[in-house]
Amino acid sequence: MSSPPALSRVDVLTVDDTPANLRSLEVLMADMGANIVTASSGDEALRLLLDRDFALILLDVQMPGMDGYETASLIRMRERTRHIPIIFITAYNRSEVNVTRGYELGAVDYLFKPIVPEIFRTKVTVFLDLHRKTEEVRRQAELLRQAESREHERKLTEARAHYERSLLEQEMERERKVSEAREQRAQELVRLVNEKEQAQAALHESNARLRLLADVASRLLKGPDGRTLLNSVHHQIVEHLGLEVCLGYLFQEGHGALQLAAHAGIPEGLRPQLELLTSGQGVAGRVATENKRWVLDAGSAANGPAPDAAPELGLAALACYPLLSQGRVLGTLAFGTRTMRAFSADELSLMQGVCDQVAVALERERLIGALREADRRKDEFLAMLAHELRNPLAPVRHALEVFRMRMWQDDIIQRTIASADRQVAHMTRLVDDLLDVSRITRGKVELKPVLVALSDVVEGAVQACEPIVTQRRHELSVSLPSEAVMLNVDPTRMTQVVANLLHNAAKYTPSGGRIQLKAERHGDELALSVRDNGIGLRPEMLHRVFDLFVQVDPGSDRAQGGLGLGLTLVRSLVEMHGGKVSARSEGLSQGSEFTVRLPLPAEVPAALSLPGMLKAAATTAQKLQPLHILLVEDNPDIRETLKDLLELHGHRVQEASDGRSAVDLVLSQRPQVALVDIGLPELDGYKVAELVRASAGGSETRLVALTGYGHPEDRKRALEAGFDAHLVKPVSSDDLSQVLKKLCTAA
User: Fold this and answer.
1) Is pLDDT of 424 > 50?
2) From the centroid of its chain, how far is CA 738?
3) Three-class SS of residue 510?
């Protein structure tokens, strides 16, 4: 009788509508002795099953037409294919897939994409080996039957030549051998059945533990608070392993003691005794100190008696693990039972896996908290930085305006003042850009879209960039559509976008260069581009140029300064409006072009021009008369320079350097306007406004907040405190005059 080959080939049917998935399955089973037969649909799989028998079917759940469940149902309806093992393969996670339905259809298992090769090969090997063994049993039975038949024929021939006694002896021998063979075959079948049952049980247990680990990891990593989830994790482990007690300790912040953070199976009366453990006290303290696992069970009696962590619990078996993150002990987790038992290697491994996941979740929670704290401190630093930068800029701007008004006849001084004024404006722009980027990255910028004409946005941007364009003697051309184009945007922010692009072009174009602003309508989209003949961009910079703090060429002699924030603001604001921005350049010294694409509103009702309305309002406004103004400022440089500037405009100015004096002067002198700094000693500006508004004598004075804090929430807080207006330092003479005119005209 010839022996079968070491690894006989069997047929495996793989069903998936994605060719790449079929090829992946073929690669995974290439060395498993299987003939891979592929089908791209349920119909094709059923046709193949009519002609061939298969050891295993790997069936994709989600397929067009007939899905995996329907295909499995039809397979189970045929007697020939009823008992073929089916493993479902799906890309859904366990919460989304109908696992119960699959098992009702006779599925032996599920595999979830992406497939882990080791798990896949292990599961498939079990069923292939089982099929081979079953086939081998059948083959051996057939060979045995043939051998018995040949032996029977031989003995029958010999019996004819011998006496009846020999024939009888031979017949008895044959019957004995047949009986032994049948007994051996029965024993082999029993062994195979036992092996199959053990394999299925091991597979089921492995899947259950994998599901538990996956569920614990998902809940710990997705949950907002790792400590809160410890209790539910404990209950899962207790239920899965048949334990009674779980204890979770975490180190207290700033202390060396361990505090009970989670528990299960502990009488409420014992909790106070277990609440705190010192270093080295009890099992948890010992594990935390020695930084290694401690196990006491029926198989590890050599560890000696349990430490005196809680003798009242009466634990007979206990496993305690340190929670480690980057070599640092965060706490401990302990699992125990009052019934003597020995923990298996798989159970200890499962406990270790859960402890590792808990440690990762706790470390993640700590890092997130640290990042939030760092982000909060960064925001506070930026706000304070803006305040501290704006305060020294205020007296400089006031002094420059005083010089300009008093020394108008001296051309040299006027040029010097103009140069200094441009640098103050540049410094103010850098501070504003820095705070804008911070607000946008934190999601603090709220757009206020209204219908506004494209021409008004462009006009405002051109006016904002006129000083730098004039200074560098650039030729600026503007081309807009002949018909009126309306945008549903935040006018201030969209004007800032266009102005930043123009400012960027002017800054990186040599003096006397050309800048072209062009807008075209393409269906329901507006394309606005700013093109220059400046220094251009290297190919690798076309995408990086919009990143934070990136400058075009910071190391060259043509670097124009700045913080690399302007284009970052452009991209963020354009995307907040639902648009896109891109950069194009033929290379260095070939100029560059930036294009903004914005969606146009579907319907455009009649709308008034915002700049036109402002111009009309300015034209019809009454001329501002000299005012009685109280200036409240604790910085003497800002107070003195702003007082000089106001007096040059004809106003009568009183001064106060603290909040209490300011309240007394407002209530006693009744000034028409009080310019109040927010950061005052003793009483801050908010408190001054509240006290003034709370008094009957302070209702007529218009209050204007002067502050280095320019966040929208700062403006909102000022108005809620009782201020009529909010100005950010350094305040220009024009801005201050407009506010005074508006408040006093309204009064």
Assistant:
1) yes
2) 45
3) coil
Contact by Cβ (8 Å): 657, 639: yes
Cβ–Cβ under 8 Å, residues 307 and 283: yes
Tens digit of each residue's pLDDT (9 = 90 or more) over 75-97: 888 888 888 899 998 887 666 66
Query: Do residues 671 and 654 lie in contact, with contact meaning Cβ atoms separated by under 8 Å?
Result: yes
Two tokens, residue 117:
């090769």
- At residue 307 the predicted structure's pLDDT band, cuts being 50, 70 and 90, is very low
Provide the residue count of the chain: 747
Helices (H), 162-225: 164-222
Which is higher by pLDDT, 365 or 159?
365
pTM of the model: 0.40
- Which residues are CB-neighbours of 98 under 8 A, at least 6 positions away? 69
Q: What is the CA radius of gyration of the chain?
A: 42
pLDDT for residue 531 is more than 70: yes
Coil, helix or strand for 255?
coil
Question: C-alpha angle 186/191/194, rounded to 5°?
Answer: 125
Q: How far is CA 316 from CA 292, 297, 313, 335, 719, in A?
A: 20, 7, 9, 11, 69
Write out pLDDT tens, residues 541-589. Answer: 877 787 655 665 544 333 444 555 678 778 888 888 899 999 999 888 8
SS3 of residue 257 by DSSP: coil
User: What contacts 24+ positions apart, CB below 8 Å, involve 262-265?
Assistant: 262/227, 262/230, 262/231, 262/233, 262/234, 263/231, 263/234, 264/231, 264/234, 264/235, 264/238, 265/238
Task: Of 299, 339, 335, 294, give the one whose Cα is nearest residue 316.
Answer: 339
Q: Scanning the structure block, which residue is given the tokens 């934190």? A: 442
